[in-house]
Write a structure and sequence with these properties.
This protein is 34% helix and 43% strand. The chain is an alpha+beta fold.
């Protein structure tokens, strides 16, 4: 029984860690992690600044700013092999981005991140923005009328 509990808890911890790793925080951007040829490749894309970074074992190997395109590519070499990281904005509305890693021309891994996991979250947030804007606008008009 103890062995089963440890297995279930271990699986639960793995699921929680996967959720933490796949979480996208607006201030930190989109982070993607890949294990390739015994190295950890991390790719980061900022939703605010358009900056894109690629790290191999915590060492920066590629950096660029991409403000005009919905795709970005980074080429680098690891263990005498050519690799490419490709970012693709799937949906601006939900803030969804995919990151693909290629060895040569072969896709070897792909990950997906989004700010909003559910469409209802978008509708709720947009509704709050509209209501907030209405309240601010109405308040400003009232103040102008009373003070003017």
């Amino acid at each position: 029984m103890k062995k089963l509990q440890n297995k279930v808890l271990g699986n639960l911890q793995d699921v929680i860690q996967d959720e933490i790793n796949s979480a996208t925080i607006l201030t930190e951007g989109f982070w993607f992690y890949f294990e390739v040829d015994g190295s950890t490749i991390a790719a980061n894309c900022s939703a605010w600044s358009g900056k894109e970074y690629v790290y191999i074992d915590d060492e920066l190997v590629s950096e660029t700013r991409n403000l005009t395109s919905r795709t970005g590519e980074h080429h680098f070499e690891l263990n005498n092999r050519e690799y490419k990281i490709k970012f693709n904005v799937v949906s601006v509305l939900v803030g969804e981005l995919t990151c693909e890693i290629y060895q040569g021309s072969n896709l070897i891994a792909e990950q997906d991140r989004a700010f909003y996991q559910k469409r209802s979250s978008i509708i709720r947030d947009l509704g709050l923005i509209v209501v907030f804007g209405f309240v601010i606008g109405f308040s400003a008009m009232y103040l102008v009328k009373v003070l003017g």
